Amino acid sequence: MSRSIHENRSLRHFEKKGAFDSQELQKKDRVKAQSREGLRSTQESASPTVESIPICIGNTNEFLFFPVSVDEIAHVLALLPVGAFTGISSIQLKDGKRYVNQEAHECELLDPFTSSKCYEVFPNIYIPIIRGVYSKDTGIVEIFAYIKHPETVPTTDQLLALRLQMLSTLVHEIAHHQDRTTRVARGRWRMDDESKAESFAENMAETWSESIIIPFLHGNPA
């Protein structure tokens, strides 16, 4: 089982690259527009399995926050390279508190609303220490909810960052799946070398975030 348990690297990384600056995003869009259109047309004809993957929201309450929708997750999946998600049995957006609190041994901070192990990314907005998990045995990707008080309204920039973070977690876990399902043919390293597997997933997620997710978010503001 592979999981997203890193500190908030993607927010800082893309902030440094100017990913939240509208002019910078427009520049990125112009440079990558043709390649994205080609990617879309290729996958629309060659990857009909996106619709066959169940994407669902599980247990929820007033404090759990999912900054992206089921439809947006499906759209991002359709933009990934052909075959990246082949074999994924389902994508589940869920609480995750029990798993996070059991597995995040190094964290002591609990959010004030659900008592999940977390860090505060913005005032009164919390992200769980473990943001997602992929099970190689079941092919299930789980994405865990963020936590905020229902009266807390993220700013436009905060919401963009939270959306980027959750979609980056999604593709990180998809990268673990792709690695697991194609590694034997590549013969790159032992299956039990978790550090190399994690490095592969981080690098792939960063590539997909820059080439797919950021342009998608810029074209589809919340």
Report Rg: 17 Å
**Class computed from helices, strands and strand pairing:** alpha+beta
Intertermini distance: 32 Å
The percent range for helix content is 40-55%
Description:
The protein has 222 residues and is an alpha+beta fold. The chain has one domain. Helices cover 48% and strands 15% of the residues. Strand 5 (118-122) and strand 6 (125-128) form a beta hairpin. 36% of the residues are buried.
Topology:
Layout: E1 2-4, H1 9-16, H2 22-46, E2 55-57, E3 64-65, H3 70-79, E4 90-94, H4 97-103, E5 118-122, E6 125-128, E7 132-134, E8 140-144, E9 146-148, H5 156-186, H6 194-219
Parallel strand pairs: 2-4, 4-8
Antiparallel strand pairs: 1-7, 3-9, 5-6, 6-9, 7-8
Identify the notable features of this structure and list them briefly.
single chain; 222 residues; alpha+beta; five-stranded mixed sheet; four-stranded antiparallel sheet; 6 helices; 48% helix; 15% strand
Q: In a nutshell, what does this entry contain?
A:
The protein has 222 residues and is of the alpha+beta class.
